[in-house]
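Task card 7
Instruction: Convert sequence to structure tokens.
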Amino acid sequence: MNHELLMLRSLLVASLVVCGLIFGNMLTYSGSPIQLAAVGTAAGAVVNGCGVPPDGIVCPRIAS
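Output:
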């Protein structure tokens, strides 16, 4: 029983250390934010001559 208590305490300490490191890194992060989208949102939205409007409704594809 003493062995299990030691294992649980060490697991608790290890998880608190990891959470503290992650939290400290979030608070002290000073880098530039990551940009996942293109600068112009409508830049790559033209598909087959039909632009996607801002409301997100896509024009129907004309069957050939």
